[in-house]
Every structure is written in C-alpha cells, then in structure tokens.
C-alpha cells in the first residue's frame, strides 16, 4: 500500500473529449472570446480596453451605458426624455410585447439614450443609439428624442454628438418611422444654420433610414473600425444586381476609401481626437499674437 | 381592355355583357333595351360598391399600374414651357429623376419628379424610376437654383425606392438622401410635394420634405414595400397583402396619421382611366396650395416646414417606467 504512494498513478484509460459545442464554449462572464480572431481573454480586461480586442483590434459591440462610461467625463452625464415610450401608433400586432421584452433585456426604455455631458471639459449634447434594443431601429420615440436633443444643443449653443447604431426604420411604426428621418434632418438644418457643430460617429451597424438621415449629416462623419454602414442591405443588393459583393463592401474602411467618411477612428483614440475637434471649434481662443 | 385588375373583374365582365347585348340588338331583330338598362343600373351600383370599398392591396395594384400617369405625363398636362435640365455636375445624369423649369398658369416654377417608364425599354432607361445618388444630387442642384430665383418647387413622388445597387452605395446613396432632407428644410421658397404613384421609403422622402404634402387617392407611401415588410416581419413575402393593411400605407391612412395635408381625389377606377381629368384634380390642389403658401415670408416657410415635421410621430410619456432611473457612471 505504501509502495503505491511512490509509484506514478497509472494513466487513465479514458479521456473526456469535449463536444463540438463545448469547444467553443467560454465560461459566461469571466472570459470573452473574440468573434473575429477567436482568441479568449478576460472580460474585465477587455472592458478596461473599451472592448477593443487586444489581438486583432476588433471592436466588440458597446451598449449605451458602456459608451457613456467610456466617452464622457465621469459623472457628467444627465439624461433627457427618458420617460418617452412607444404608444404603438399603428396598433401593430405583437409590437408592445416585443418592446417590453427588450426593455427587460436591455434595461433601456428605447433604442436611444440622450442627454448632456462633458468630453474632457467640453459641454456637449449627446445621443447614443443602442443596437441591443430592437436592432436600434428608429420609430417615433427615437426620432423625437433625437430631435429634442438637437433642440437642446441649439438652446445651449453646444456641439451635438451622435453615436449611431441602427438597422434602420422600425417596421412596426410604418410611415411614421420614415418621417422621423425628415424630422431629425429638419432639426439638424436649423441647428446647423445657427452655427451648431454636428459630429456623427457611426458604429456597427448603421444602415437604412438612420444612415440616410442624421448619421450622414455631421460636419464630421466618423466611423468605428469594421462597422457595417450602408443604405440597402447586402442581400437585397446581391439579389438586385445578381453578383457577389466584395467581402469588405459597406465596411467603414470601404466607405473611407470611396470618400464617404472623414475618418475611421479606433475607439481607443476617439475621446482624444474628439477633444481636439471640440478644442478647434471652441468659440474665442488664444490668439492674442494676431493683434501684436 | 388590357391592364384590368383582379378586384375590378366583376365590373369588367358586366360591362362586356352589356356591350354584347348592344351588339345583338343592333344585328338581330330583338329589342333588349330593357335588359340593357337594367344591367346598366346594376353596373353603376357595382362600380360604386367596388371602387368605394377598395382594400389597401387594391390600391397598391392601382398605384403600380403600368399605365398609371407619370411625372412627365402630368408635366405636359399641367404646365407650359417645360424646360428639362440634366446632370448633377459631378457624376452624370440620372434619368430616374426629371427636373426642370416651367410655368404654371403663368407662374414660373421648378418641377422635380421621379420618372419610371411605361414599357421595358423606357424602364431600363429610367432604371424603373429608382434613382442613384446623382439623381438626388441633380434634384438638389435644381432646387437650390429655384431657391436662388425664388421659384416655388413642385415635387412629384413616384418610386419603389432608391436603387439598391453596388455603385449607388459607393457613391453615397445614404448621404445623397440625407443631404436632400437637410437642405430642403432650409429652402426659402414654397415646396409642394405630391405622391402620384408609389412612395417608397427614403428614396421617395428625398423629394418629399415640403410645406404641403398631398397624395393621390390611390397612391401609397410607406417605409418599405408590403412584400419587403412581410418578409422581414413574418419571413414570408406572400403575406404582402396583410402587410399592406397593417403598415397603413394608403392616402386615407396617412391623412389619419397627420402625415399628409390633402387627399387628391382620383378618377373612378384609378388615374390611368382618364389622365386629363386626373390632371385637373391635381391642378386644383396646386392652386389651393400656392394660394396658401405664396403669401408666406421666407422665415414663415422654413418655420412652417419645421413645425410640420416636428409634430409627426406618436409616443407616450410614462413616468412610472422602471427603466427610467438607470444610473450612469
């Protein structure tokens, strides 16, 4: 018996082979697997790195809350119009149930969060769309909240910054969704004519009616690396023209090359670059040397 | 007659029967006048029943009718001295949109409209009335010219939508549409928009930010085609008929939703049955709109557009929502 203690234990005669599903399974919460490079990393570390993959720079989706925490000065955000919710204007079947389900899931009441805040001290009005709520689709509430945010920026004479993330118009509100494109654009025009600064940062995905309205109307139009941006869906285009599209079609990088964007900016550099832009647009400034 | 639609078949059949009886009366030695009269009364009743109770899907069929009058048809019936202008000065000329200057009862105006074809050849030339970015940019160029010379702008909306193609995306379809919405908001002249056929999504809206927005009785205006909605919502394109009802896309629906100003009545059975008569109804609506808008100042016109779009949309204010007190870091 004692002898047994000094001998190596015999090799097990069987081994558990992980199933196909289990191989890809990563412990929920603690670890995150990058869908792009398939490498596994600590979720906490990833969050600290603004959810940008350490290995391949893939930008993991960010919800509105995380965006606020990462972009605005700590504690500076004050939300507006959080009491607005959809009234199901077309009495569309199953719509309210879908909304309630997403409210529970996301702890948001709609697909955009708006409010005032500061970026390295610069006062701004900000709107952040969240694609986890009904694919970030735009209905009456999203249109109204964004319009009110633009009006707020106009009233305060501060820049308006919008992070877009949307599949497009919200089907269940029909033509009212479509008209939100006009409503937000008309509001931006007034703000712009008053000299207001508009910055649009397109995140994954920005398509359809949102891309064909405020997302494209910035004085500066930026995008996050790899974001899908376009008017029509890839499948619809392929069906229409009957040819396969290039892999990078409608990515941020593709649009930059085609002249549709000012820049593609990594999330890790965004706050700093935005501060530069806000600095340059700051009224007044330090140029006494001109007078001498 | 060609181009009769499914829902009006009973009317067509009855009409055929009446003309058959007439032939018989003429040729044979029998007097069927009584019979014919009776049938004519029935026809009138039937027409009333069918055309006054059109379902959304019936209207979709009329709006898409191949013989439905197009922008150029109405231009020749409503205006004089039309002079078409081409090109966006950047890329090319998109014939899915026509733009130009003309006179309306002596008043100089600018006209812009989607243009589809009535046969395959013309449809290919016009890309089925589905514009590329250069079409929208041409429209904007001509609208800015109208602004410079203080001419009212009249837009005819008739498109399935902006063209979903590779080149269109590369040249900024989204930006072109967005830019039009933005710039139309600030034009200092009256803008009157009339949906004459299909108003398909952003591609229609890009000519649709006006002081007045009217729809022909059997036209449609929608965020997506009924087929598209059905395939997205229920993964079944054959439910288009149901989608047409649920999506609220007809002129009476949009009037109820406070999106449009006036419904322009259509000729019985649809505008294609009598183009000239239809143009008269549009003429009447244009006169009314111009009478209202021409006296307004530049600031009033811009403010009027702002208020018009600001009020569109319905939402609830919920103070007891459990998600409103989310805390932010």
UniProtKB/TrEMBL annotation, chain A:
Pfam families noted in UniProt: Carboxyl_trans (PF01039), Zn_ribbon_ACC (PF17848)
Chief subcellular location: cytoplasm
Record SUPFAM superfamilies: ClpP/crotonase (SSF52096)
Top class in the EC scheme: transferase
Quaternary structure, from the entry: Acetyl-CoA carboxylase is a heterohexamer composed of biotin carboxyl carrier protein (AccB), biotin carboxylase (AccC) and two subunits each of ACCase subunit alpha (AccA) and ACCase subunit beta (AccD).
Family statement drawn from the similarity comment of this UniProt entry: Belongs to the AccD/PCCB family.
Record protein name field: Acetyl-coenzyme A carboxylase carboxyl transferase subunit beta
Native species: Robertmurraya siralis
Gene designation: accD
From TrEMBL, chain B:
GO MF, one example: acetyl-CoA carboxylase activity
Any single GO CC term annotated in Swiss-Prot or TrEMBL for this entry: acetyl-CoA carboxylase complex
Biological process according to GO: fatty acid biosynthetic process; malonyl-CoA biosynthetic process
Record has Nucleotide-binding as a keyword: yes
Broad enzyme group: transferase
Pathway per the UniProt entry: Lipid metabolism; malonyl-CoA biosynthesis; malonyl-CoA from acetyl-CoA: step 1/1
EC number(s) recorded for this UniProt protein: 2.1.3.15
Superkingdom, natural source: Bacteria
Keyword list, A-Z: ATP-binding, Cytoplasm, Fatty acid biosynthesis, Fatty acid metabolism, Lipid biosynthesis, Lipid metabolism, Nucleotide-binding, Transferase
Subcellular localization: Cytoplasm
Catalytic activity: N(6)-carboxybiotinyl-L-lysyl-[protein] + acetyl-CoA = N(6)-biotinyl-L-lysyl-[protein] + malonyl-CoA
Domain CoA carboxyltransferase C-terminal as annotated: residue spans: 38-292
Family of this protein: Belongs to the AccA family.
PANTHER family per the UniProt record, alphabetical: ACETYL-COENZYME A CARBOXYLASE CARBOXYL TRANSFERASE SUBUNIT ALPHA (PTHR42853), ACETYL-COENZYME A CARBOXYLASE CARBOXYL TRANSFERASE SUBUNIT ALPHA, CHLOROPLASTIC (PTHR42853:SF3)
Quaternary assembly: Acetyl-CoA carboxylase is a heterohexamer composed of biotin carboxyl carrier protein (AccB), biotin carboxylase (AccC) and two subunits each of ACCase subunit alpha (AccA) and ACCase subunit beta (AccD).
Job of this protein: Component of the acetyl coenzyme A carboxylase (ACC) complex. First, biotin carboxylase catalyzes the carboxylation of biotin on its carrier protein (BCCP) and then the CO(2) group is transferred by the carboxyltransferase to acetyl-CoA to form malonyl-CoA.
Name this protein carries in UniProt: Acetyl-coenzyme A carboxylase carboxyl transferase subunit alpha
């Amino acid at each position: 018996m004692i002898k047994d203690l000094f001998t190596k234990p015999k090799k097990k005669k069987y081994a558990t082979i992980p199933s196909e599903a289990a191989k890809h399974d990563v412990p929920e919460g603690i670890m995150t697997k990058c869908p792009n490079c398939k490498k596994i990393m600590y979720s906490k570390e990833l969050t600290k790195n603004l959810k940008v993959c350490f290995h391949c720079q893939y930008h993991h989706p960010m919800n509105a809350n995380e965006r606020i925490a990462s972009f605005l000065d700590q504690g500076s955000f004050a939300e507006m119009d959080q009491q607005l919710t959809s009234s199901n204007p077309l009495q569309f079947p199953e719509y309210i149930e879908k909304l309630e389900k997403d409210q529970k899931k996301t702890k948001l009441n709609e697909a955009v969060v708006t409010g005032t805040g500061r970026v390295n001290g610069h006062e701004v009005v900000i709107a952040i769309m969240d694609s986890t709520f009904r694919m970030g689709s735009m209905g009456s509430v999203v249109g109204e909240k964004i319009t009110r945010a633009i009006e707020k920026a106009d009233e305060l004479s501060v820049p308006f910054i919008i992070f877009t993330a949307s599949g497009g118009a919200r089907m269940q509100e029909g033509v009212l969704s479509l008209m939100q494109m006009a409503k937000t654009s008309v509001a931006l025009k007034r703000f712009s004519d008053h000299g207001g600064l508009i910055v649009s940062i397109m995140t994954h995905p920005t398509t359809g009616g949102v891309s064909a309205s405020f997302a494209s109307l910035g004085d500066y139009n930026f995008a996050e690396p790899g974001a899908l941006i376009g008017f029509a869906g890839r499948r619809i285009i392929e069906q229409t023209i009957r040819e396969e599209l290039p892999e990078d079609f409608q990515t941020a990088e593709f649009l930059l090359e085609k002249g549709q964007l000012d820049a593609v900016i990594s999330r890790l550099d965004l706050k700093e670059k935005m501060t530069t832009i806000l600095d340059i647009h700051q009224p007044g400034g330090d140029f006494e040397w001109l007078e001498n | 007659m060609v181009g009769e639609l499914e829902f009006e078949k009973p009317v067509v059949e009855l009409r055929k029967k009446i003309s058959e009886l007439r032939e018989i009366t003429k040729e044979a030695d029998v007097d069927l006048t009584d019979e014919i009269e009776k049938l004519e009364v029935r026809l009138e009743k039937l027409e009333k029943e069918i055309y006054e109770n059109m379902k959304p899907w019936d209207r979709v069929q009329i709006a898409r009718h191949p013989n439905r009058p197009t922008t150029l048809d109405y231009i020749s019936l409503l205006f004089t001295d039309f002079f078409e202008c081409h090109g966006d000065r950047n890329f090319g000329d998109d014939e899915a949109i026509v733009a130009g200057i003309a006179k309306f009862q002596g008043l100089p105006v600018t006209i812009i409209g989607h243009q589809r074809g009535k046969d395959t050849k013309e449809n290919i030339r016009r890309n089925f009335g589905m514009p590329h970015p250069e079409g929208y940019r041409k429209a904007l160029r001509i609208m800015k010219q109208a602004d410079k010379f203080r001419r009212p702008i009249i837009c005819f909306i008739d498109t399935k939508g902006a063209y979903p193609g590779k080149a269109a995306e590369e040249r900024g379809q989204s930006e072109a549409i967005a830019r039009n919405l933005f710039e139309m908001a600030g034009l200092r002249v009256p803008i009157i928009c009339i949906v004459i056929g299909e108003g398909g999504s952003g591609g229609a809206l890009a000519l649709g930010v006006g002081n007045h927005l009217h729809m022909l009785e059997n036209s449609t205006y929608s965020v997506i085609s009924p087929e598209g909605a059905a395939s997205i919502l229920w993964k079944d394109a054959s439910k288009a008929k149901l989608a047409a009802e649920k999506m609220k896309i007809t002129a009476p629906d949009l009037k109820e939703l406070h999106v449009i100003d006036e419904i322009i009545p259509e000729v019985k059975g649809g505008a294609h049955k009598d183009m000239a008569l239809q143009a008269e109804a549009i003429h009447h609506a244009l006169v009314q709109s111009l009478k209202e808008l021409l006296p307004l100042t530049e600031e009033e016109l811009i403010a009027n557009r702002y208020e018009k779009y600001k009020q569109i949309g319905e939402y609830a204010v919920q103070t007891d929502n459990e998600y409103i007190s989310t805390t932010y870091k």
